[in-house]
Design a protein that fits this description.
mainly alpha, Ferritin, 0% strand
Amino acid sequence: MKKSYSKIALSIGICLLVGFLSGFATQSAVGDWYGDLTKPFLNPPNWIFGPVWTVLYLLMGLSAGIVWSRGFHHKWVKTALYHFGFQLILNGLWSIVFFGFQNPLFGLLVIIALWILILRTIKWFRVVSKQAAYLLYPYLAWVSFATYLNFSIWILN
């Protein structure tokens, strides 16, 4: 049981670290480049993104920790966590591409790949733990919304 808690804590820490590092690319562009973009009607205020992503990273880490706690020796756990790791890399890459490189088109390509990998991760997490899969649904919903925002910003600018 103690190992489960440490795996969950480490997973949450890794997810929060990715979010923290992604924040550097995001914050440097929000004040100037992003602020000057034409945004769609449904674009939320900037202050909402930080709290939403923090909750999502916590849920993602909890979800990954639950899967990891089932034993990394099992091939389904490995497959599920590999998918999770790749989508987490794309998650961080999106901030770098969209905000850091200020490129909505390539950001759109990255976020579409991210969305597909989240679906695949949910599929594999469901094989290992339905509870872990359910914890990723808010993340999928938010990335779906972010894909709409990214697409709209690309079209409008």
